[in-house]
Amino acid sequence: MSPRLQIDAMVVEHRTKRGVVHAVAGVSLELEAGETLGLVGESGCGKSSLARAIVGLNTPKSGAIRIDGRDTDPSRRGAQARDIQMVFQDPYGSLNPRMSVRELVEEPLSVHRLGNRAERAARAKALLERVGISAAMHDRLPHQLSGGQRQRVGIARAMALEPKIVICDEPVSALDVSVQAQVLNLLLDLQKEQELTFLFISHDLEVVRYVSHRIAVMYLGVIVEIGPAEGVWSLPLHPYTRALMQTAGDAERVAATGPMVTLASELPNPLHPPSGCRFRTRCPLAIEVCARDVPALEDFGDGHRVACHRAREWAGTATPAAHA
Ligand SMILES: Nc1ncnc2c1ncn2[C@@H]1O[C@H](COP(=O)(O)OP(=O)(O)OP(=O)(O)O)[C@@H](O)[C@H]1O
Predict the structure, then answer these.
(1) Can you give the pTM of this predicted structure?
(2) Which protein residue's CA is at the shortest distance from atom 24 of ligand 1?
(3) Which of 21, 75, 130, 294, CA to CA, is 20 to 30 A from 285?
(4) Which amino acid residue places its CA nearest to atom 2 of ligand 1?
(5) What angle do helix axes 117-130 and 101-111 make, rounded to 10 degrees?
């Protein structure tokens, strides 16, 4: 059976005055129905550029997007544009400040000419109630809502067209910690009810681990490690993944499974990415071959794949860290 979502050799470039930014440099991913793939990486690694290309907000330079095995129409019009929706980090920026909550949720239904006026109103009401926005708030404007309520409206809007796939781009990063779990749990409940596929982008490794079946790690436009969430978590094999986990306060666990990697310098200039392995200029383990050859994603078992010339050296000997 075809995967629900297949991204094949996606390339996204941004033209700037200083040159071309290679934001996504050939990313391929497959996601099953009902699956969450968490995507992590530092700011500037290309996560949003990839997400925006998948929902049609960026035009990729090349690559294919398939839903249930069918190529999507690059013009992204019609029914198929409904299949992939996005939940943004900052719902305030993506919600028209002059529209009421009710109008905001009705809008996608009107754009796609679904139902008559009364049916759209009823559907918007049901969606808002499902995401926890009570009837008393349906006439309010976005600025009259809390951050968590605004994100719930953003989620209702994304769900209005009954998508198969939802790209969640840092959906809880702008929220107070106290409401983050509520919004995450709402997303997980909706996923179960509707067998939704999530691409879940976050720089917060704990959040990604909480929601994801699999985790992909992106560095400077490429996927450097991907695998089952607990596998990647307990035995991170790419030096960049190890560095991210170490920075996130997991030094002890990382140290138990191989070399420590500290991220010293800044992300290289994306206008001129390094030759060979893109991470090698920041990698304390880099050797000659790393500057010469681009490492392929190699399978280490159970679908845990890593693009590193040196990962084998500790992969065979290390014992996965105990699950916290
Ligand atoms: N519209 C644009 N025009 C020019 N360059 C862009 C544009 N959007 C992104 N970039 C550049 O592309 C690269 C990848 O950025 P992107 O926002 O996709 O990364 P990210 O990992 O999502 O980061 P963040 O978490 O900060 O959003 C960066 O170098 C960024 O400066």
Answers:
(1) 0.92
(2) 43
(3) 21
(4) 14
(5) 120
